[in-house]
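Subject: sequence -> structure tokens, single chain

Hey, anyone have a minute? Need the predicted structure for the following. Not urgent.
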Amino acid sequence: MDRAPERTIVAVSRLAHRVLDGDIVLPEYRPGFVWSVQQALHLLDPVHRNYPIGGLSLWQSTERLAGESKVANLDVQPPREGYPVDCIIDGRQRLAGIIGALHGGSGRWNTGYDLEADVFLELAEEQPPAHIVPMKSISSPDLLFSQVAALRADQETGTGTRRRSRPHARTAVRPGPSSDLDSLYGTQTFTPKSCAMPTRPDA
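Reply:
Had a minute. Here:
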């Protein structure tokens, strides 16, 4: 009997790292990645303000599935042999765009955060002004967002109150017909092993 989907809240930065580490597999895009950098940057505004940004559908499997080796010009590690991976069923364009905008890959994904204007933007130069932080220089987007949230709280209240920001997306792991996976990953042998998402809300 099929299990009901498990829904949880997971930090966007955690999802991004899991994709780059090979724990979440993104299918190769057909016909290709269609999101613009500006679309991804617009999505980061609610992310860094700690608002939900919709759901992702994942399906866990131990099968080896064909996925992207690069996302937003960033290298993706191959899945570990024999370990379960979460396969993106829905939301892959959105997640790939967030990865590019958060981690500031090369080429068109040279992105930054303007501390004065409180906006994300594309960078036209390698050495931007001091008030613009290149995202590729940030080891932890969560840390940047939490510091910005604390600064914003200080400015709004004047009390010095600190609050921690947890950028997140609502994700759902749901079972479905194997034909859905066939069209995304090009395999006829996919069998779901579990519907459990191996992440914690505070991960």
